[in-house]
Amino acid sequence: MSKKGMPQPATLRQIITDLFQNEKFDVNELKYLITFSQVKLTDIQKSSVIYPLGLNPIDYFIIYQTDSFNDYGLVSTDLKLVSFVRKGEYLYGYYLDVNNQPRYDIEILKNSCLPVELSVDSFFSNSRYLELYNRLGEYTLILGLSSETIASASLQYSHNCKYYYEETFSDGIHNNDEPLTRLTGLSKNLQNLF
Length: 194
Description:
Number of domains: 1
Shape: globular
Oligomer: single chain
Strand content: over 45%
Strand order of the largest sheet: 2-3-4-5-6-8-9-10-11-12
C-alpha cells in the first residue's frame, strides 16, 4: 500500500490501456506514427539486459516503433524496447534502444494477436530513460527521467484520445509547443492482456 499523500501505483492494465495506444502526429512536413506491440524475447536476449539495482523484470515487453513519413514515403524508423520492471509496489518502464532489428510492418505490429518476435541478431543498449507509472484519480501518469547528456524529466498522460507531454530541464521548459498527438487505439496483442 502506498504511503498516505503519495500517488497510488498504477496496474499493468491501466498503464497499457492509458499510455501505450498507437499514436500519430505531424511536425512540419513529416507525419509520425508510433506503434506499440507486445514483443517476445529469447532467453538469451532477456539475460543480456542489465537492470539497475532494485528493479526486477516482470517478463512483459513492448516494442516501440516510431516511423516518420514525408510525401514520398518512409523517411526514418526508430525502435525501442520497454521492459516492465517492479520495485516495491510500483511498476516502471525501463527503455532500451533496439539495434540490428529490421523495421516491422506497421500492420503486423497492430494486428498480431500474439507477441511479435525480435530478430535473433538484435541486441539492446541502455537508452538512459526510465518511467514511473502512478495513478491519480482517473488518470495514469508517467513521470519520466532521462539521464542522457542533458538530464530532463517529463510528465505524460492521455485524455480524450490525445496524448499530453511536457518536458523540463534544469533551466525550465525548453520547448512548450509539442505537436498534438492523437491516439489511434491499442494493438491487438496489447488488448489480449485483458
